[in-house]
Amino acid sequence: MADIKHLHDFSVQVRRDILRMVHAVNSGHPGGSLGCTEFMVALYQHLMKRKPGFDMNGIGEDVFFLSNGHISPVFYSVLARSGYFPVSELATFRLINSRLQGHPTTHEGLPGVRIASGSLGQGMSVALGAAQAKKLNNDTTLVYSLHGDGELQEGQNWEAIMYASAKKVDNLIATVDLNGKQIDGSTDEVLCMGDVKAKFLAFDWEVVEIKQGNDLQAIVDGMTLAKSKTGKGKPVCVLLETEMGNGVDFMMHSHAWHGKAPNDAQLEAALAQNPETLGDY
Fold first, then answer.
1. Mean pLDDT on 256-276
2. Is the pTM of this model over 0.85?
3. Spatial CA neighbour of 171 closest among 240, 123, 121, 226
4. Cβ(107)–Cβ(115) under 8 Å?
5. Which residue, of 106, 220, 253, 278, is most buried by count of CB atoms within 10 Å of its CB?
6. Cβ neighbours of residue 21 closer than 8 Å, sequence gap 6 or more
7. In whole angstroms, what is the distance from residue 14 CA to residue 41 CA?
């Protein structure tokens, strides 16, 4: 049983981290990071089978790939607070020679990061390779990936989506953050993708919908259902309906904060809505 209070307190602190990291360097992507906070916290603090420390091969444990790498603030915060590297290192976000680059990279040697994901639309292909490697190694653990809905417009996503079902890669759970927004506007305005669920079903995937993608219990329940559908011959897609900028009232219901940092007054107002729970870095 998930400890929802722990997950909630963890999420609030991660939101504080995201806001402070992006503000400190006046650069980064708070909107999508805040929108995916509850999902990432639930994944690392409850859902994934993880081993102590970090091994790039991830043998005998679940592995995660972030495809929409611009939401690195939430990824770094969750990794640090899950024990992969010191929380104090969050203060180096986007600085010269930092391991915490704007988009995650592997050459920096940051524990928890298995792929560079600055170029969008590539993460599912890597996740598929890892999932097939697990099958070859008779490793029954799972591969998780996260994608943006706008990100589905580019890269090699649809080739990978076709491949996954054709090759019965049924140890993969690919989650799509359906917030309906991207840097230039709504996804419908920029490049309408129509019915995303129907598309994945047409490509012969299992599909699980989480309508309340910022509700921790709904996430835990939906992802538990997704896990139950693995190992049955089809890859699993989770459609996670989130609100960009969740947890900060003036950042929500708009695409404006996709890639914009708050000023001093905005940071103060945002932090007031997210009181310190686990201790600031």
1. 97
2. yes
3. 226
4. no
5. 220
6. 28, 73, 76, 77, 90, 91, 93, 94
7. 8
